[in-house]
Amino acid sequence: MMNQPPPTIVQEATHAAWILVAIETTYRLFRCGNRLNLLSWDSQFQPAKMFFVAYLLCILTILLDLKSHKFAKSKYLLSFLNILVALDGVVAFLMGLGIYFQSNFLMFLSILLSSKIFLLHFLSRMVTGETSTDKFSLTIQTTKTYLHHVGNFLFLSNRLPNVVLIVAVWRFISMSGHALPFIADLCKWPPALFEHMNWIINRSRTALIMLAVLLCLLFADIRREFAVSAVGHLSYLLVRIGPVFRVGAKYFDNPIEKKRWSNELTDLQRLYILFVQFTYPLFAFEIGTMMAACLYFLLLRVMNTPQFIDDIHQEGCVLV
What we know:
The protein contains 18 helices and no strands. The protein is mainly alpha-helical. The protein is globular and about 55 Å long.
């Protein structure tokens, strides 16, 4: 059996997701004119603190090694977690509504469900496509999984409600694919119908990323709001691009071809096949769209830093 090659360009790039979020959070803390306003619990609506506490609890369940406990093997718990996975799209929409209406209840409920009642590391391999055994690796993996679920909302404000709804619909549709296996099993879908619906969801994800970028290019107010929350969107895209690029399962009908792509090629070889040989046009288009969106959101954030600093001092410096 051939060993998997060491991770290279795109695989390692997924680590940039949590690094960029950490840098952005630190930057906001140190640029804030009144840090007590940011760190206190006096404001009626501060979802950033809910995100942070939920993340800490997710990591705590790793350190406590809850996965090795007897209850973790319960079929009822696993069934419940699978149901939560199926609801990811609905939960993402609820999270957007929580920010839109500044509802602490909706934010608490959506963060609780998206973190899988703080047992997110039970399902991290499903998102990242990586297997981790030691606690440090599992913590990094779970961090990336957490960003996959909540990254788009981390720095999102309701200053322009339309942008909140755009992001909520984007994440609702893009995460609806998580429900397909559950619905297919429940409704006894034939394989052909399942593959057809999967194809629609995959194309919709790419179309929505393109739509978000297009709206930014067309409308200055939308571009400004996406610039403020750009690092969150970038973190989601970086986490997603890693497993899609490395596995690419939906683009290979031949199992041997799929295994070769996943286990025998380096990232440089995969990039050459996609963008030089152009062997898989749809696959290349999806990966290319995500890479272009990553670059765009990064540039958007950097280019709008002066305006962002002014907003921090004028509006009291809140993370979200």
